[in-house]
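Case study 2.
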Amino acid sequence: MDCGNALELSTIDGDENSDTRTFSGSTSRWLKVLVNDSIAFGISHNESYTATLQSPPGMLFDLYAYTGDATAPNCLATAVLGSGDPESVSDSWPDVVLQDDSRWITFEVRSVSGQPCTSGAQWTFTVVGNTAP
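Prediction:
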């Protein structure tokens, strides 16, 4: 699977609620989600998300994020590598009143090292919207 064929997860709100999407796998994978500007006509709230990747025991997967715009993912955007344990990537951007500030975010879960996952050992990816204070 490549970036252009990323699995689309359900949309999350970037400026209200705390929508959460979770997906698990055992090999490298591409995922994408629309971080929706749900309050486009009112008080300005920052848009934000936080994605985390928990690798299974004995394996290491890296998490990369590629930011698109409101209309489409951008597989050629500069990749942001997750950090920490579990690896995470966060971003926030200003919400301009009367403008759609939604963004497509594409995530790459990339195998780095370790033995192939065995009998149910899987990584877990989670993305949550509206995580900026």
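Residues 100 and 127 are 21 Å apart (CA to CA).
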